[in-house]
Amino acid sequence: MPRGLLLGLLLAGIGEVWAQETDSLFLENHPDMAVVSFAQIQRKPAEAFMKSRIHFMSDFFMKFNDTTALDENPAARHLRILELMDALVLASKAPLVQQCLETLGKQPIQPTQEGLFAEVSLQIRWQQEVRKVKLYLKKQQQAGNWSWQLLDVDTEWPPSSGTLMPATDSLVFIPPNAHELNFMGLSRIMRADVNFGSCIHPDPSPRLTALVRAIANQEAQVLLSLDSQLWWPIHQGWWLKIQSFSRETEPSGWLISDLGQRPQDLPPALRAFWKPE
Question: Is the whole model's pTM more than 0.85, yes or no?
Answer without folding.
Answer: no
